[in-house]
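Researcher: For the annotation table, I need structure tokens for Glutamine amidotransferase. Please keep the output clean. Sequence:
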Amino acid sequence: MKPFLLIATRSEDAAADSEYASILDLGGLEERDLHRLRLETTPLPDLDLDAYSGIIVGGSPFTSSVPTEFKSDTQLRVEAELGTLLDEVWDRDFPFFGACYGIGTLARHIGGVIDGTYSEPISAPLITLTEAGQADPLLAGVPEQFEAFVGHKEACTHLPDTAVVLASSEQCPVQMFRVRTNLYGTQFHPELTLDALVERMTVYRHAGYFPPEDFEEVRRAVSAADVSHARRVLRNFVERYAS
């Protein structure tokens, strides 16, 4: 099959490699099936989308909603390159899956509003599918309510009418949406195992996602969650678009 393309922006090798490994594992992919570009170190090359089954954009330490003057040159370059890529993805309705930073990138590109109103600390809230979500193929086999790992400083507060909300939670109204037929975003992390989440917590312990002194308390809380259904979303994306 054609490989999927993972576009990553994590400068910390441990977090970047863990994200890649988790997507391989939970997506049921071999290394030959998932090419990775780390945009924080390398500019986005010219891409032939016909060479790929789909695009996955993972999480990031970047906060897209901060004022431009507070963004690094690297973040500004990454945002510009992703915007150009999304122009083509939108025009072609090319399979796209954005998780956490990826959902914000997609939402902003289509005219949505991203800010800190609905931020969530690292946790595993209960996600509820909308009526549209219950009918969507990427959520096939996923129950109406399920737990999923989250941890984000910003989220969608407004989406244009072109977007369809597929899932929400008590603290975050837009946990998943679709635009056009094949472009998806999730605020929750379907690619995370517990081990991967704990590793990410270690890397970003002082990054503001939770009080660093609460590390063990947060770890115990997320360890009790059953996020097996959330993982199905990523596998559904791979199985639907593998070509």
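Researcher: And a one-line annotation?
Model: Helices lie at 13-27, 73-92, 101-109, 131-135, 194-203, 215-223, 228-241.
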